[in-house]
Each structure stands twice: as C-alpha cells, then as structure tokens.
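User: Can you recover a sequence for this backbone? Please restate the input before giving your answer.

Assistant: Of course. Working from this structure:
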C-alpha cells in the first residue's frame, strides 16, 4: 500500500519519479562537496566570510558543471538511440529478408516455433515501426528514455543548489555572540547530516535498497569526505598560514 501511494501519479512523494535519480545524486554531490569545502575551511581556521565565499563559489560552479555534464550525457544517449534507429529503418527497407530472419531467430530463441513462430514474425514485420522498435529492444538492447536533457540538467542543478546550500546555512544566518559563532561548524554538521539522511532515504527508492541502508551509506560517504577535507585544510593551514 505504501509503495502504491509513493508511486501513484508518476511521482515519489512530490517528485516526478522519472527524475528522482537526478535529484538524489545531484543532492548528494551538492551536500558532500559543499560540506567538504566548509570542513576544509574550518580545518584551516578561515573566517566566516571566507567559508561563505568558498562555499557559494563551489555551489554555483560545481552545480553548473554537474548539470552540464548530465545534459550532454543524456543528449548523447538520445542521439545514439536515434542514430541506431535510423540504421534499423534503412536495414528494414534495404535488407528486408535478412532482418526478417533476425526477427525469426530472436523469437525462436525465446521458444517460439513452427506456425506460431511464423505468425509472430508476420505480425511484427507487417508494421515497420513495430519492427524497428523490436529490433532496437531485442537486438541492440536499446530503449528510448523519456527523460529530456534539459529536464535532467535542470533537476540536477536545482537539487545541487538546494541540498548543497544546507551546509552553509548556519554561516549565512549566523547569530550574534562568540558562543554561537564557535558552534557554527557543529550546526553545519547537524544540518548536513539531516539533509543527507533525507536524500539517502530517496536514494533507497532509486536503488531499491533498505531505507536505513541508503541513509547510512549517504551519511558515511559524506562523513569521509568531510573528514578528509578537514584534515587537509588543517595540514595546509599549518604549512602555509
């Protein structure tokens, strides 16, 4: 019942399920890379303004870079599909007997034989579009994705910005007083952990793993990245500052 509610209407909660993977991986990358910048800056004992500047610069630049990469990756997949599809159309029109035999071999391998096999072959080859679609799926193992390059890039960028901004919130909305400022990194750690836990729960829907496993993996990777960045910052601060 719960799974049916989550996936009804083509959505997982309030997200289009076709693009949930872009939201998840964009969010994870955004949170981890920004938090790594914050941790590195803290390790180097840099000021609040420097943390914000470095964090925002990383947020915009890396988010844009990741979305552009996603755009070209999705576009390349769609272009490759269309290119192979046109080749199949040419082969159907110019190498008809060869392509008919390939359909016959494909369905013979699935267990069809005799008159039933010939009926299946006849039905498929009677419609050129169905024929080409069958060849694309069965021979080339290629299925056209409904995702568009612009939407995948947009979801990745938005997710990167929203989730990636979380580690910076405590610094941007810093309160007054040395006690509060002293604990900014702690607040950032807590906020980032919460954000990664939420994204990790969505990740479990994409990978179809246990929700607690998804949360643990996301928090673990984020913790490793932050720890490495913190100690690298600390070492560089001692060497050069």
């Amino acid at each position: 019942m719960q799974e049916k509610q989550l996936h009804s209407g083509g959505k997982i909660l309030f997200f289009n399920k076709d693009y949930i993977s872009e939201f998840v991986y964009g969010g994870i990358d955004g949170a981890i890379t920004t938090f790594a910048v914050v941790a590195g800056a803290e390790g180097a004992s840099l000021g609040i303004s420097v943390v914000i500047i470095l964090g925002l610069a990383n947020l915009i630049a890396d988010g844009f870079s990741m979305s552009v990469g996603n755009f070209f990756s999705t576009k390349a997949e769609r272009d490759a599909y269309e290119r192979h599809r046109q080749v199949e159309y040419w082969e159907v029109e110019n190498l008809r007997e060869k392509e008919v035999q390939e359909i016959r071999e494909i369905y013979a391998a699935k267990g069809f034989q005799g008159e039933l096999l010939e009926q299946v072959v006849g039905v498929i080859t009677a419609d050129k579009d169905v024929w080409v679609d069958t060849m694309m799926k069965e021979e080339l193992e290629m299925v056209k994705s409904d995702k568009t390059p612009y939407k995948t890039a947009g979801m990745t960028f938005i997710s990167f910005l929203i989730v990636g901004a979380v580690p910076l919130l405590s610094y941007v909305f810093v309160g007054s007083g040395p006690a509060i400022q002293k604990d900014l990194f702690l607040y950032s750690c807590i906020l980032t952990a919460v954000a990664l836990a939420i994204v990790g729960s969505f990740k479990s829907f994409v990978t179809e793993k246990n929700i607690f496993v998804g949360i643990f993996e996301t928090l673990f990777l984020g913790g490793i990245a932050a720890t490495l960045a913190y100690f690298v910052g600390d070492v560089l601060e001692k060497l050069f500052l």
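That completes the design. Confidence is low (pLDDT under 50) at residues 1-9.
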